[in-house]
Amino acid sequence: MQGASLSSTLNRGDKLDATLHPRHSGHKKRCPECRHIFTSSRSDAVYCSQACRQKAARKRSKAAAGRRRQSAKHVTTCMDCKQPFVTVSASSRYCSQACRQSAYRQRREQAIAELVRLAERQQFSGQKVKEHVQRWPLSRLNKALADAKRTK
Ligand SMILES: [Zn+2]
Ligand SMILES: [Zn+2]
Predict the structure, then answer these.
(1) Tens-place pLDDT, residues 116-145
(2) What's the burial of 112, exposed, middle or buried (CB within 10 Å: 0-12/13-18/19+)?
(3) Rounded to two decimals, what is the model's pTM?
(4) How far is the CA of 75 from the centre of ligand 2 (A)?
(5) Which ligand minimizes its atom distance to the CA of 54?
(6) Reduced to 3 DSSP states, what percent helix, strand and coil does the chain have, rounded to the nearest 5?
């Protein structure tokens, strides 16, 4: 009784298996997404179902987006210390706050020097101009420079 029911279950199972996996016409594959063994009539089938294919495609595009983010980081040369550094923003020009400040100081000094040159050319005391603008921020120095050039 026990044996008969077991063998009939197995037989039914065999029949079911034969319907799902027709011999000779199928290629046994393991779906890389859900890890289930499936049979496909196509030898190049990779996924067991449309759902698994889409799931895998989503994963791939997510990974590609990650790689794009990674590659968005690029190496730039610091405008101040001339050392290469990695940045995510294409507009960053300095590797550090210190370099940014040092470059700012340099630009200020250049602006002051040019103001002094212009003043001396116009018979002003360079030294007095220098003392006068010593504490000006760069924006004010640039404005004064532009004005001085206009009234040349
Ligand atoms: Zn699958
Ligand atoms: Zn630097």
Answers:
(1) 999 998 888 989 999 999 999 999 999 999
(2) buried
(3) 0.48
(4) 12
(5) 1
(6) 60, 10, 30
User: Domains of the chain: which residue ranges?
Assistant: 19-64, 97-151
Ligand nearest to the CA of 76: 2
Cα separation, 51 vs 120, whole angstroms: 79
Q: Which ligand is nearest to the CA of 33?
A: 1
**List of long-range contacts for 107-115, beta carbons under 8 Å, 24+ apart:** 107/138, 108/136, 108/137, 108/138, 108/141, 111/138, 111/141, 111/142, 111/145, 112/141, 114/145, 115/141, 115/144, 115/145, 115/148
Tokens of 121: 């050319």
Distance (angstroms) between ligand 2 centre and the Cα of 94 equals 5
Percent of the chain with pLDDT over 90: 55
Enumerate residues 6+ apart whose C-beta is below 8 A from 90: 74
